Amino acid sequence: MDKLDAWDASKADDPQFMMNMAKKYVIMDTLQQHGGECKFGVLFQRADELHCDVLTAALNSLKRKKAVGYEKEMPLLSPVDNEVMVKLLKPDFDCFA
Question: Which pTM was predicted?
């Protein structure tokens, strides 16, 4: 995550901050850049680029809050679920609220 302008190294030990960063900069931003939906594999690739290891947990959290949606009931895992489409349901969702 240290590749992001919004990165605050002083909060690197705060798990909630790290989860919110993943929600915003890995999931929400990537979905918005792809017109509101993309395959899980695209999200996984972005998470890998940012050295983010909480993608699945962040995605599950956003799904529970109905900010994103996808067909599977179980958590998404790579490479098995790389073709599953993830859709942005609440584009204005505030990950840090």
Answer: 0.88
